[in-house]
Structure formats: C-alpha cells, structure tokens
C-alpha cells in the first residue's frame, strides 16, 4: 500500500469549473511535489514544497495553484483549465536533504480529464 | 546540466528469464543518486531501487539489481526471473545535490522503457 494518498482517483471537469486535487503523506517527509504526466511520457515537475514553503515553480500557468496547509497535506487548485491539461497528476514526498539519496515516494495519481 | 537517457522504448522478455534495461546519465556533480521506478498501466509510480554515486557495491533489492558503471555513466536495471506482473513502464531517474549545494534536488526522469513479459 502506498503511503502517499491522492484523491480523487479520477476527475472530469469542464473548462469553467474549479476543483482541487488532494495529497496526504504520513511518512514524516518535509518535501512534497506535484508532477504532471502525459500518456507514455515521463513525469514533468510542476511544483516543489520544502518545509511548507514553495521552493520550485516550473513556470506553471496560474490556472494551477498549489497549497501546502501543513507538512502532511498538499493541494492543487484547478481553475479554467484547458483540454490539453488532461493528464495524470502525481503527488510525491521525500526527505528534504541531502537530495541525492532521497527517493521520491509517489501516490497513485489523479487522472484528470478536462472537457 | 543533468540528463538521463533510456534508449530502449520497448522490450520483450520471456517469463522466468532475466532482462536488462539500459540507462545512461550525464552530470557534473559528484553527489548524485540514481533511481529506478516501475509504472504499471494503472498509473502508480513504484520506487524499486537506489544507487548512490559514492556506493562502491551495486544495489540489489530482491529480484532487482542495478549494474552501476560509474566511469561509463551507466546504471542499468537487471530484473531476474521475470514475472508477468513485471510488465510495465520503467523509468530511470537521477537527483543531484546535498546540503549547502546550489542544486535544487530535482528528480529528472528518462523517457522510459516499456517491458512486456511473455508467458
């Protein structure tokens, strides 16, 4: 069983909707991540939170808004998405430092379809 | 800049045989880690095995082993005694950085290799 839990598992939303993806980890990790993955492609980093502060934003459009309410929770707020934003959204967590020997542990992902 | 290359888009292996998935990397950092992940069609990304740049012995985890050749900058995954449940996409990934460095610690993925195990 994964120790990083993502909800919902599937989400279908219209381009005018507002929705949120949720991620929770109970591994005591202080770094959390959002990745976007298109079919048959590697995951692409979107955001990194370290100690509940946003440390990396990979030039993600503002229609994606991350939030880290506490060390265990990570949200991704979605608004006015485009059909090309349809993808698998993966949340992950890891120990903060040193980076190089800390694997990321991923949740099962949310499959998002924008209609 | 760090880079991961997986040159095998797809591989087939007979059940119970061993298979090697290739991965080469490029980095100018001395401290880095190499990771392999498995992604079944259901989507979850499963961490399999880790090799650190300072590790002198190849990592092993059950049926998975990592053939680490530092001079060649390669980190191939070997799966022994393949099972039907091993059919999945496999990603090689790398992280750089340690305390005090300017690296951000991003996990960078290769393009992946789709493995199909034949009964």
Summarize the model shown.
The complex is a heterodimer of chains A (115) and B (119). By secondary structure, chain A is an all-beta fold.
Q: Could you characterize what this model shows?
A:
The complex is a heterodimer of chains A (115) and B (119). By secondary structure, chain A is mostly beta strands. In chain A, 0% of the residues lie in helices and 56% in strands. Chain A contains no helices and 11 strands. The model of chain A has no long low-confidence stretch (mean pLDDT 93). In chain B, strand 7 and strand 8 form a beta hairpin. In chain B, strands 2, 5, 6, 10, 11 and 12 form a 6-stranded mixed β-sheet that branches. Chain B starts with a strand and ends with a strand. Chain B is 0% helix and 51% strand. With 119 residues, chain B is an all-beta fold. Chain B is built from no helices and 12 strands. Classes of the chains: A mainly beta (115), B mainly beta (119). Chains A and B meet through strand 9 and strand 10 of A and strand 5, strand 6 and strand 10 of B.
Radius of gyration of chain B: 14 Å
What oligomeric state best describes the polypeptide chains here?
heterodimer
What are the secondary-structure elements of chain B, in order, as H or E?
A: EEEEEEEEEEEE
Mean pLDDT of chain A: 93
> Which pair of protein chains has the largest interface, and what are the residue counts?
A-B, 28 and 32 residues
| Uncertain runs of chain B | none
Structural Rg of chain A = 13 Å
Bin the strand percentage of chain B. Answer: over 45%
Quote the average pLDDT of chain B.
Answer: 92
Ends of chain B: how far apart?
41 Å
Query: What's the story with the biggest beta sheet of chain A?
Result: 7 strands, mixed
Low-pLDDT residue spans of chain A? none
